[in-house]
Amino acid sequence: MTPLSARALPVANHQEPLQRSVPRADRVPNKKIIRELNIKVTTQRLMILDVVRNGPSHFTAQDVFEAVAARHPEIGFATVYRFLRTLSEHKYVTEVRMGGMPARYEWAGKRHHDHLTCASCSKIVEFENTEIERLQEKVAKQFGFSLTGHVLELYGICPECRAKENAADRR
Amino acid sequence: MTPLSARALPVANHQEPLQRSVPRADRVPNKKIIRELNIKVTTQRLMILDVVRNGPSHFTAQDVFEAVAARHPEIGFATVYRFLRTLSEHKYVTEVRMGGMPARYEWAGKRHHDHLTCASCSKIVEFENTEIERLQEKVAKQFGFSLTGHVLELYGICPECRAKENAADRR
DNA sequence: AAGTTAATTGCGAATGACTTTCATTATCAG
DNA sequence: CTGATAATGAAAGTCATTCGCAATTAACTT
Ligand SMILES: [Mn+2]
Ligand SMILES: [Mn+2]
Ligand SMILES: [Zn+2]
Ligand SMILES: [Zn+2]
Hints:
homodimer; 171 residues; alpha+beta; Arc Repressor Mutant, subunit A; Dna Ligase, domain 1; 2 domains; four-stranded mixed beta sheet; three-stranded antiparallel beta sheet; 6 helices; 39% helix; 20% strand; binds manganese (II) ion; binds zinc ion; DNA-binding
């Protein structure tokens, strides 16, 4: 695997247990994380954080709401949105809003990566490409900008969906 | 300018007249473009298309609405949205929806490019980087995807805003 | 442990960007 | 010119997200 090649990252869907590059962060108790934000440790915040950290990645606010509501039905949407925003502002989660669909979030305690999404079945592959990152810096510098962030989302058709399409066409 | 370097593209803001890579498309009358879509040639479509093609780039539906309404106050929002969608579906305009803000559109009769946006003053620089494009293809192929599109938006602080910040800090 | 109080919650209403509905109007093939 | 059909505009509807606010609660302070 050359430094130029993209590396697949474990995704919730096809994931097997394996050691992460940031194992420590994953052991920090939720309570501590909330305290570090200088806000009150409430049951709802603990529950939301639990879902955020231990549930599937690339979740929507709705996903979090439903997961929490399963055990704590009084939870309100506003609470979920408010806390997700706080987490996002403090870089604990990454928020991606695209294409007029609900925002998706993911716990940021993992290595930086971008997404390759199947336009047909919405499957998400995470990848990391240092060469692209480097070129982005270079572009920014070229225009005198200091780069503060980026959004790179690739869209395509995954092998499975392509196979299905072919089968359908052939018929 | 090496093949690795990004090329600045003319942007409405700081633009000087210069020959485009697709001059022909820019001469096609609006009427003809609409006819090619097999839809009726209406006054509102002609006016919208005029704004889309001759107004500033990276406009919102609201921008188009206001520009058209200036001369034709009966125009409705629905008409603007409907036609922008049609144009977008037929690749005459590119639609970019990001960060929970209104979608921005641009006439697609120009070379493909991505955007570098100032997080402070919202200035937009268009750039083109064939090396990044190539690497995107490579990533997709690596995962067996056929690439159908991508969104690459870089965020940073432009030189001017950086200067302002420094001045403010120093004081 | 009880009291104080400011942060937090959950509800419902409000927003904002579209989209849909539908009665009225305009286009254009014949 | 004329009728069939598409397009328009006003208003109502969606949908994700945010706001306002009275009731609740976490985290101090006695
Ligand atoms: Mn991810
Ligand atoms: Mn552009
Ligand atoms: Zn797929
Ligand atoms: Zn700026």
